[in-house]
Amino acid sequence: MSISALKSTPRAATVRCTDDELIVSLTDGRTLSVPLAWFPRLAHATPEQRDESELMGDGEGIHWPAVDEDISVAGLLEGRPSVEDQPQGG
């Protein structure tokens, strides 16, 4: 594998949600599937609200205007769920 391949940043190409999963197809051919429960705003949204997503920054992230949710592709690749509704340390 060349170094230039390692520097390539995957971008979202398409996005869809089922009742249980967020599924993102990337421009490099991979498909990510994560539990919708990781993102409480999406989990509690209607199917219509989840269907209305927008790609941000040429696919670097995804925005759902109806529920004000933003998710980065980098965060998905790192396996980071939303920090929303998680207990705060202290």
Write the layout of secondary structure elements.
Blueprint: H1 3-7, E1 12-17, E2 21-26, E3 31-35, H2 40-43, H3 47-51, E4 54-56, E5 61-64, E6 69-72, H4 73-78
Antiparallel strand pairs: 1-2, 2-3, 4-5, 5-6
Annotation keywords:
22% helix, single chain, 3-stranded antiparallel sheet, 4 helices, 90 residues
Task: Outline the structure in words.
By secondary structure, the chain is an alpha+beta fold. The chain is built from four helices and six strands. The protein has a three-stranded antiparallel sheet. Strand 2 and strand 3 form a beta hairpin.
> Residue share in helices?
10-25%
For the biggest β-sheet, the strand order reads 1-2-3
Number of helices: 4
Radius of gyration: 14 Å
Distance between the termini: 44 Å
Oligomer: single chain
**What pattern of helices and strands is seen along the backbone?**
HEEEHHEEEH
Q: Which descriptor suits the 3D outline?
A: globular
Briefly note the structural class of the backbone: alpha+beta
Low-confidence stretches: none
The fraction of residues assigned to DSSP E strands is: 25-35%
Q: Give me the count of strands.
A: 6
Describe the largest sheet. 3 strands, antiparallel
The average pLDDT score comes to 89
